[in-house]
Specification:
about 55% helix; 3 domains; about 300 residues; Histone, subunit A; six-stranded parallel sheet; Rossmann fold; alpha/beta; Helix Hairpins; 6 strands; 14 helices
């Protein structure tokens, strides 16, 4: 019996999906996806969705749950994921959290502010204000309503400034106060976190190869169907949609679309590594030349031997 919730995180294209599946299968567990793109039903190729046999054999939570026409954010994920984790843990079902979305990872590990929902319209309004009046204008507004919270945020970090203002305007309470009320699994359950990585040049080779495979499997056709739909703000961010759409509209060649998709995926992987590399509770595993079976056994041995 595995007595810890196991996380497998890290940059895209490092083999997390396969290892997570084999690990869950070996311990009789279930997978909680920690990937913001897999929640959508329609895209399968450009999101590198787990193959159907994996989804049939092992329950995967937060995969194929909504349409691309529906917005889905980290707060919704947090609320739903914590209930799934509570239920599985109470029933004694081993849990494997697998994915590369840093915000989703942080949300379930350390929590999000209770009751602090999101408002897309408010967020867009604040972004437009920043475009017109500058980041410093919003930062000064934050200092007025939450000086303590503003001290922890750079005046150039527009994303966090907007988030802090969004929390204040939707709840009436400063983000600095709500941070004290967060519910995260780190403080509730025993957890072990593993991060997969490859040296950069090899990772980029894998990303380039995988992108070529996506096009061979029908990425262009998939995107041509997706753009007929009323894509939500969050779905539009999926890598591949913008690049292939530009090709379909005749703005760039197919090769240029491929290169843009490769480049944007490489940049995304770099950002993922930077995010997870700040996490001191994580143990990195260099997955180069290691089989999935070896990695499963390594993780299990490590989990069983760990004292905390």
């Amino acid at each position: 019996m595995v007595s810890k919730i196991i996380f497998i995180v890290g940059p895209t294209a490092t083999g997390k999906t396969q290892v997570g599946y084999l690990l869950a299968k070996k311990i009789g567990g279930q997978i909680i996806s920690c990937d913001s793109t897999l929640v959508y039903r329609e895209p399968k190729i450009i999101t590198s969705k787990p193959p159907s046999y994996m989804l049939k054999e092992i329950p995967h939570h937060f995969v194929d749950i909504i349409s691309v026409e529906t917005s889905y954010d980290v707060f919704t994920y947090y609320l739903e994921a914590r209930e799934v984790i509570r239920d599985l843990w109470d029933r004694g079902v081993p849990i494997v959290v697998c994915g590369g979305s840093g915000l989703y990872f942080q949300a379930i590990l350390d929590g999000i502010f209770e009751g602090a929902g999101s408002s897309f319209s408010l967020r867009e309004k604040l972004r437009k204000e920043a475009d017109i009046k500058g980041n410093l204008y919003l930062y000064n507004k934050l200092k007025e309503v939450d000086p303590q919270g503003a001290e922890r945020i750079s005046s150039n970090d527009l994303k966090r400034i907007i988030r802090a203002l969004e929390v204040y305007y939707t709840t009436g309470e400063p983000i600095s106060q709500r941070q004290k009320k967060r519910w995260g699994i780190w403080s509730k359950y025993p957890v072990k976190i593993f991060g997969f990585f490859l040296r950069r040049n090899l990772l980029y080779e894998v990303i380039n190869w995988r992108t070529e495979e996506m096009f061979k499997k029908g990425a262009v056709k998939e995107v041509s169907e997706l753009i007929k739909l009323n894509l939500s703000i969050t779905a539009k961010k999926i890598i591949g949609i913008k690049e292939i759409k530009s090709f379909l509209e005749g703005n760039i060649s197919l090769d240029e679309a491929k290169e843009a998709m490769k480049r944007n995926t490489r940049r995304f992987a770099k950002r993922q590594f930077t995010w997870f590399n700040r996490e001191k509770r994580l143990e990195w595993i260099d997955v180069e030349d290691k089989t999935s079976s070896y990695l499963v056994e390594y993780i299990l041995r490590n989990v069983r031997n760990s004292k905390n």
